[in-house]
Design a protein that fits this description.
Helices cover 42% and strands 26% of the residues. The protein is of the alpha/beta class. It has one domain: Vaccinia Virus protein VP39 (Rossmann fold, 3-Layer(aba) Sandwich). The longest helix is centred in the N-terminal third of the chain and has 23 residues. Bound molecules: S-adenosylmethionine.
Amino acid sequence: MLLSKLLAQSQHPEGWLGKIMMKLWNRAYFPMVKWSLGFVRTPQNGTILDVGVGNGLTTKYISDSASSSLVTGIDISETAITAARKKNTADNLSFFVTDVEDLPFPNHNFDLITAFQTHFHWNSYVRGLEEIYRVLKYNGQVIIACEKVKLNYFMSGDKNGEYTKRIAKNIGFTKLNTHYYQGWLYYHFTK
Ligand SMILES: C[S@@+](CC[C@H](N)C(=O)[O-])C[C@H]1O[C@@H](n2cnc3c(N)ncnc32)[C@H](O)[C@@H]1O
């Protein structure tokens, strides 16, 4: 009962429990975020999208390291975006409530798109990746990273990343790379 409540918060944080959970996720996932971002050169004078941001700590971290880029964070949860807007302000940073499966952005808009600890929650992973592909610029990069243990739980058909590689390739992504470290899994694609 308690476990299912906590797992539901992970998919869609709400209310006071959601706010607490988002702070706990910061502690748990931020080291993974830093590790993942170490694989890419953060675009300067560009556009960056962070998907499924929770309270926006990762988005703010990205915006600090790319102060000449415009950084946008999105999340399907109102509670998340309210917290993200309250906690993180910077001239180059904005947050919106929206679903990764229906992004309100034009085609070929972003240089880098990141998604930390969220892709296994999307209703349709394929649809989310298709939308990411649509709004990504040519030569743009995508980072998806998560704890492997969550894949075992939420996406057991993709424990070794083969499913992700197959659908990403079908959508049109190229240069698919995977890295593992401790319990973390990282995918990198290019358009
Ligand atoms: C476990 S939290 C991770 C938050 C943050 N990325 C972090 O690392 O702390 C997963 C987040 O994904 C969001 N999410 C789930 N499905 C989504 C979707 N279809 N579109 C956008 N965000 C989504 C949830 O609302 C939640 O805030």
